[in-house]
């Protein structure tokens, strides 16, 4: 059994706490002989800034490049509000995405039946919800140039961001969406603002052509991003796979995750293109953020982080058995009524981050 | 009594139907001697394209420039999906906003108590909800240059949109938000993606400085746009005034409107700067779209359109009495249980567009 090279980046806020719980699961899988890991650890975000005055060090970037998968917890927090822009915590995350060329961000929005009542939406609207948002992750307004603030002659400032998309970038993310849809409910909703943005116009054109050429068997619909944001609230179950750009994907995937009432539960995968051997670079992280307000209290929910490890087992390490076991263990502890405070709802009591990690390991 | 110069632009889809109901209210106000109107009518969107192959004609633009207020219903529909980009229906709306310099878009998200059950959210989360979204409307990615699609040497296409904001643009929309907050619950939430976008960074800087300099009495918080999209779902009542850019405002105001369950009820105002006489150019329109799927069926809800006339009475014609009367008439018919189909809920039956207009006039 060859070892999986896994780089752990706990990051900031609740990151280290939830990361420690994922490590318990890793230790268990190793001991049980299910998988062998070669673990490296690094710093990203505010943690890297505090140590080295960068958002991620060159040596940690090198580890990320050579890892089979990166498991990142979360970055950012008010502590670093004042640091220079190019070394702010998010810059570490963005560099990882860009330098590893992780163009495909898969964000499932699943409503765990045990948690349907935790949603702000009426139960019947979210119970059984299962959407997959495919977000383009290395293009758009996140990386386009010019991206700058200049001071004008009159002393005012002028800021610019540039959204760029090419045929190729849209096509490859479209493919990911159509392929996923074929394994799910065979429907793709593509979203942009074609009525206002030239990138949106090209997006719709390219997705339409790709669909016609290679994926005519999949049902395709186009929906403007503002309308999609509304339809998510109104009737989320109408969606199967949603494919959209970097910025709309950021907004819509967060909205969808919050709808489920299971935000602390949702993992995500960011994937690169497959190489000649079918291997792809990959990073896995929870959908939620670093939650600085509850950091250090031992009450954060580690499930999304452990679920992200599960996604790594599935997508990077080709170990569906281990992935299934992790998913079942999560469903198991939830079924037993174990809850961290964020998903407590009407439950009589809640358990700590560490108790939740232990419970999942016990279930395994 | 001097006459108010009002330009009516019914536009597309359900536009003409709901516009006709607003005209009934106008006729009533005239006959009752409450206000005197000088009404002009014009074409915008697909209607203008069908007639003149433009999204709005020069003569209608001239009417808009000389009107005290423009009352627009809605533009767009699949019928015009294939028309050239620069004359697509939305181009008419965008030109009106830009040429009239209507930089401040006020979008109230109010939950009418009679309709709280129509929301997808649990009743207690939206009952009594009253948010005002202040969206910047003449800048950002909607209008920045370059904005183009070019064909590359390899035959691929490359599309670009440019988001631009200057100190001045951010300051003037910030002022609108702070002033409104003072008359409401004194809280402003400013939203951008300062962690990813230079425009967001400048936005936060300028709003922070303006607050410190002139509005320190107002409570200010900054929230990233993706987080705000989530918080709107989780606990919308935490917000009072939200101020944000053109694109985020598009998304967030639609999401907020949908949350209320009262989408067909919500008007909006787009205002320019005040001139030396305190007069400002203004356009009023429903938050909802042209709903081509139900156009011509006589079932559209005219309340947002009539409410938009009410907003015109308040903000352009300085006639708070007439505005209040319209708002009360709307509340009155709802109180009586009258419902168009979109807000029918568990009601035993629904009424037509025209019956709703008549009922509001009768109530007046
Ligand atoms: C932290 C931030 C840079 C990031 C983003 O905007 O992409 C986050 O919101 C996300 O969705 O992963
Ligand atoms: C019709 C469209 C151009 C417009 C916009 O994107 O601004 C609409 O969605 C709105 O919010 O008024």
TrEMBL record, chains A, B:
<feature type="binding site">
    <location>
        <begin position="289"/>
        <end position="301"/>
    </location>
    <ligand>
        <name>NAD(+)</name>
    </ligand>
</feature>
<feature type="binding site">
    <location>
        <position position="250"/>
    </location>
    <ligand>
        <name>Mg(2+)</name>
    </ligand>
</feature>
<comment type="similarity">
    <text>Belongs to the isocitrate and isopropylmalate dehydrogenases family. LeuB type 1 subfamily.</text>
</comment>
<feature type="site" description="Important for catalysis">
    <location>
        <position position="142"/>
    </location>
</feature>
<comment type="pathway">
    <text>Amino-acid biosynthesis; L-leucine biosynthesis; L-leucine from 3-methyl-2-oxobutanoate: step 3/4.</text>
</comment>
<dbReference type="InterPro" id="IPR024084">
    <property type="entry name" value="IsoPropMal-DH-like_dom"/>
</dbReference>
<comment type="subunit">
    <text>Homodimer.</text>
</comment>
<feature type="site" description="Important for catalysis">
    <location>
        <position position="193"/>
    </location>
</feature>
<dbReference type="Pfam" id="PF00180">
    <property type="entry name" value="Iso_dh"/>
</dbReference>
<feature type="binding site">
    <location>
        <position position="254"/>
    </location>
    <ligand>
        <name>Mg(2+)</name>
    </ligand>
</feature>
<feature type="binding site">
    <location>
        <position position="226"/>
    </location>
    <ligand>
        <name>Mg(2+)</name>
    </ligand>
</feature>
<comment type="function">
    <text>Catalyzes the oxidation of 3-carboxy-2-hydroxy-4-methylpentanoate (3-isopropylmalate) to 3-carboxy-4-methyl-2-oxopentanoate. The product decarboxylates to 4-methyl-2 oxopentanoate.</text>
</comment>
<feature type="binding site">
    <location>
        <position position="226"/>
    </location>
    <ligand>
        <name>substrate</name>
    </ligand>
</feature>
<dbReference type="InterPro" id="IPR004429">
    <property type="entry name" value="Isopropylmalate_DH"/>
</dbReference>
<dbReference type="GO" id="GO:0000287">
    <property type="term" value="F:magnesium ion binding"/>
</dbReference>
<dbReference type="GO" id="GO:0051287">
    <property type="term" value="F:NAD binding"/>
</dbReference>
<keyword id="KW-0460">Magnesium</keyword>
<keyword id="KW-0464">Manganese</keyword>
<feature type="binding site">
    <location>
        <position position="107"/>
    </location>
    <ligand>
        <name>substrate</name>
    </ligand>
</feature>
<feature type="domain" description="Isopropylmalate dehydrogenase-like">
    <location>
        <begin position="5"/>
        <end position="360"/>
    </location>
</feature>
<keyword id="KW-0028">Amino-acid biosynthesis</keyword>
<keyword id="KW-0479">Metal-binding</keyword>
<dbReference type="InterPro" id="IPR019818">
    <property type="entry name" value="IsoCit/isopropylmalate_DH_CS"/>
</dbReference>
<protein>
    <recommendedName>
        <fullName>3-isopropylmalate dehydrogenase</fullName>
        <ecNumber>1.1.1.85</ecNumber>
    </recommendedName>
</protein>
<dbReference type="GO" id="GO:0009098">
    <property type="term" value="P:L-leucine biosynthetic process"/>
</dbReference>
<feature type="binding site">
    <location>
        <begin position="77"/>
        <end position="90"/>
    </location>
    <ligand>
        <name>NAD(+)</name>
    </ligand>
</feature>
<feature type="binding site">
    <location>
        <position position="135"/>
    </location>
    <ligand>
        <name>substrate</name>
    </ligand>
</feature>
<keyword id="KW-0520">NAD</keyword>
<keyword id="KW-0560">Oxidoreductase</keyword>
<keyword id="KW-0432">Leucine biosynthesis</keyword>
<dbReference type="GO" id="GO:0005829">
    <property type="term" value="C:cytosol"/>
</dbReference>
<feature type="binding site">
    <location>
        <position position="97"/>
    </location>
    <ligand>
        <name>substrate</name>
    </ligand>
</feature>
<keyword id="KW-0963">Cytoplasm</keyword>
<dbReference type="GO" id="GO:0003862">
    <property type="term" value="F:3-isopropylmalate dehydrogenase activity"/>
</dbReference>
<keyword id="KW-0100">Branched-chain amino acid biosynthesis</keyword>
């Amino acid at each position: 059994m060859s070892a999986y090279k896994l780089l752990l980046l706990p990051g900031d806020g609740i990151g280290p706490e939830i990361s420690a719980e994922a490590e318990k699961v890793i230790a268990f899988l190793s001991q049980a002989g299910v998988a062998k890991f070669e673990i490296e650890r690094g710093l990203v975000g505010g943690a890297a800034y505090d140590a080295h005055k960068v958002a991620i060090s060159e040596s940690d970037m090198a580890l990320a490049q050579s890892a089979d998968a990166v498991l990142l917890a979360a970055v950012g927090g008010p502590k670093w509000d004042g640091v220079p822009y190019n070394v702010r915590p998010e810059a570490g995350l963005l560099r990882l995405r860009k330098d590893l060329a992780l163009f495909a961000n898969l964000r499932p929005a699943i409503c765990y039946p045990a948690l349907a009542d935790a949603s702000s939406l009426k139960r019947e609207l979210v119970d059984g919800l299962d959407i997959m948002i495919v977000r383009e992750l290395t293009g758009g307004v996140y990386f386009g140039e010019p991206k700058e603030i200049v001071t004008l002659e009159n002393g005012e400032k002028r800021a610019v961001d540039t959204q760029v998309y090419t045929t190729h970038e849209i096509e490859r993310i479209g493919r990911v969406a159509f392929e996923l849809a074929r394994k799910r409910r065979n429907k793709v909703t593509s979203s942009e603002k074609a009525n206002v943005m030239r990138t949106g116009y090209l997006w719709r054109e390219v997705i339409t052509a790709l669909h016609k050429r290679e994926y005519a068997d999949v049902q395709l619909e186009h929906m403007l991003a503002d309308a999609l944001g509304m339809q998510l609230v109104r009737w989320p179950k109408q969606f199967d796979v949603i494919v959209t750009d970097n910025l709309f994907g950021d907004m819509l995937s967060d909205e969808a995750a919050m709808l489920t009432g299971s935000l602390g539960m949702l993992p995500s995968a960011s994937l690169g293109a497959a190489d000649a051997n079918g291997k792809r670079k990959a990073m896995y992280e929870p959908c939620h953020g670093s939650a600085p307000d509850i950091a250090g209290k031992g009450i954060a929910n580690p499930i999304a982080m452990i679920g992200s490890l599960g996604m790594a087992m599935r997508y990077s390490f080709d170990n569906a058995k281990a992935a299934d076991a992790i998913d079942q263990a999560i469903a198991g502890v939830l079924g037993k009524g174990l809850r961290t405070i964020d998903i407590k709802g009407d439950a009589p009591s809640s358990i700590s981050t560490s108790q939740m990690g232990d419970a999942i390991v016990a279930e395994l």
